[in-house]
Amino acid sequence: MSSNVSTAQRTLGTSGLPTSALGLGCMGMSDLYGPADEAESIATIHAALDAGVTLLDTGDFYGMGHNELLIHRALRGRDRASVQISVKYGALRGPDNAVLGLDTSPAATKSALAYTLRRLGTDYVDVYRPARLDPKVPIEETVGAVADLVKAGYVRHIGLSEVGADTLRRAAAVHPICDLQIEYSLLSRSIESAVLPAARELGIGITAYGVLSRGLLSGHWEQGRTLAATDFRGHSPRFQGDNLAHNLALVEALRAVATAKGASVAQVAIAWVGSRGQDIVPLVGARRRDRLAEALGALDVDLTEADLAAIEAAVPAGSAAGERYAAAQMAHLDSER
């Protein structure tokens, strides 16, 4: 399978952000999945760029700025204009790594971007988005603040993350929204009922994260795997006890489909997300070059109608056991979801 994606392009939203058909989510290089090798992380970003991946996704709270600094180092000597950098902001962190809440007020929005630009070593970001819906701030005020940054040239496009259909409509009434970043995978399909139709109605693209369900759909996860204390999957319901056993059984059913296709489980899972529409760009969270190479192979997997039916039979909608997040984390998500 080839791994060059330079000719595989998609456009996010009617506001028109051309980008690669796969994006690289960089969070795990700095946070939440346990220790990462910094040199390997930078080598993975370089390999992605060399293969034609142009979309890099980060957040200012990933490692409390570490991820943005990492991307800055990785992009030295590269053509900034050839890369789209997508940044989430608004999540508040304590020195003990605790999540303290959200602040997407206009002043906080503009201040956060100032620090992001300095850490990234750039004078603009391609997509700027609140990480979650701040219950204290009307979405109109938040989008209005980012729109000010667009007018000033510091931001090219406005995105949203993990919000519902009503919020999308309210936000789009203030300013065009490029894309909605939201979890979408074979194990997480709740957006299909209302969120995805609303996004399409409004001309909003989808950047889909969690396409491998935090590694569950990678085909490499094993029961009894030891996790680092800083790996949030140690507290995620889908990775616990009977839930994990059930979910891994789904993976084995998917593996049979993948094997018949001459592909890996991860490649089929990624290809399935990509098959849901030309307005969807899957984000892969590879932290190593070998995992990146495997993920890029998904672009060569052509799923037929028979393949899609077999995938649906192996992992039916709603078949995952356990919630995406622990109860305390769910409290930070938009209630519309």
TrEMBL record:
GO terms for molecular function: oxidoreductase activity. GO terms for cellular component: cytoplasm. The keyword Oxidoreductase applies. InterPro entries: Aldo-Keto_reductase (IPR050791), NAD(P)_OxRdtase_dom_sf (IPR036812), NADP_OxRdtase_dom (IPR023210). It holds the Pfam family Aldo_ket_red. Keywords: Oxidoreductase. Residues 22-314 form the NADP-dependent oxidoreductase domain. The keyword Cell membrane does not apply. SUPFAM superfamilies: NAD(P)-linked oxidoreductase. This is Aldo/keto reductase. It comes from Streptomyces sp. Y1.
